[in-house]
Amino acid sequence: MSLSPYWLRDNCPCTGCRDPRNGQKLFQITDLPEGLAVAGSTEADGELTVCWSDGHESRYPLSWLEETAETSDGDGRTEQGRRLWAAADFSRGLPEADWSAYLAEPAERVAVLGAVRRFGFAVLRGVPVTEGKVLEVAESFGYVRETNYGRIFDVRVEADPNNLAFTSSAIAPHTDNPYRDPVPTLQLLHCLLSDAEGGDSGLVDGFKAAALLREEAPEAFGLLAGTPVPFVFRDRATELVAEQPLIGVDALGRIREIRFNNRSIGTLRGLPAAELDAFYAAYRRFAEITLRPELQLELRLGPGDCLIFDNVRLLHARTAFEQHGDRHLQGCYADLDALASTLAVTDRRLAALDALAELFEGEGAGEYLGEDVTMAQHMLQAGALAEAAGAPDHLVAAALLHDIGHFGGSGLELMKGTDNRHSHTGADWLARHFDPSVTEPVRLHVAAKRYLCAIEPAYRAQLSEASEYTLQVQGGPMDEAEAAAFAALPGAADAVAVRRWDDLAKDAAAATPPFADFRPLLMRVLNLTAGTSI
Q1: 60 close to 17: Cβ distance less than 8 angstroms
Q2: pLDDT attached to residue 461
Q3: Going from the N-terminus, what domains does the chain have, and what CATH number goes with each?
């Protein structure tokens, strides 16, 4: 395996190089010595261990090294990894969801936000027809971008409009706010009234149109990608100017951004007539592509519909409507980075819950330390007991997950007389997904048994035969000093509560809820940090 020494060292995952809480690097590139070299390396147990010329040692999972050899999709903002579309691609229906399901079901939220990333838009149905509700939609995945139009703007006929959007006129396909730098990358439109004749909405995939221009007329594409265009907006209180190409590309030439708004394009200056002629020919050709019927997706927003779309990819349009018709949309701007972040974190949360579900369904079906219930039944019963007692979410989660450290076969070690320290192993594993309010009661629940045996003689008498055996393996009852030290710990009371539910959760005749019943609660208490990708 041939790897760049500086790249490899820059990605060292050890706690001396990265903060374990957030994965951020603890060194500067200038801190690495000149002439850095690999002094030696070994591969074993799925890891590459590297000894460096400056004495440092790094360990890298081989699976991670294999992943990094694959081509990256980048930040997900370019045409790569997107589904470029024409109107016929949605003949079977739009990417949409019910507002209540979107709020209640993380998987539904992932589907909606994923559609905005992949296709550039999604529609939420059944959003309450209440003024200002569009802000709540935006805040469900990110932050509102306030502009000179305010946090929220009304799309309806105004007596003295400062923008043609606030008239009943037809609006050709365009992107909003090209005169800003940076442009708001998301727009939301929530329909409150739609009784007017006309006023239908339209969407065009600007990336698709630009890709067609590149295919059909590469020179025209190059002109639009390489010619800065002034965009201007002025009214009595505002003057905004930004100069950017109509088609923005990244360093690899991939389409990344569309700025297209005939109403706001300014005057190109300083170019010879021949270059201006070539530019306008390319500009016209691109515009003609955006007007092709097969690219224009038509939809009519009804009351309660909220359209979320990518404002630097999709061009949106509107047909004219009756001057005095009742048509009222409320809109706001937001940004793709927050949506992408929410999508990624929700995906990670769902993946963490899926991993837990697999443990409960797989190894959880195994024997639980000689008791009459399986490991999964025991833990699920403990969680149910905590929930029935009205415990807060974090404590229900701790009760549910308290014996996760037994998975992997370590429970057998305990029954053979070796303390497997499953409370610590489990807490350390759970720390990847939960904060100390969940992990510390798990870490202390074995100590809590030893503590209760020391201070409550009647408690020890009710222990099961298996639990009495494991008590001896785990150190027996605490002495007076140990008990006092335990009681002073911040998480002691929670650990004792988990311990009592633990002891009761061994009833083969008791109703045992499925793991799925706890997913919403676990979703609420998951606390995934950025960490390192290694």
Answers
A1: no
A2: 85
A3: 5-68 (3.30.2020.30), 94-342 (3.60.130.10), 363-525 (1.10.3210.10)
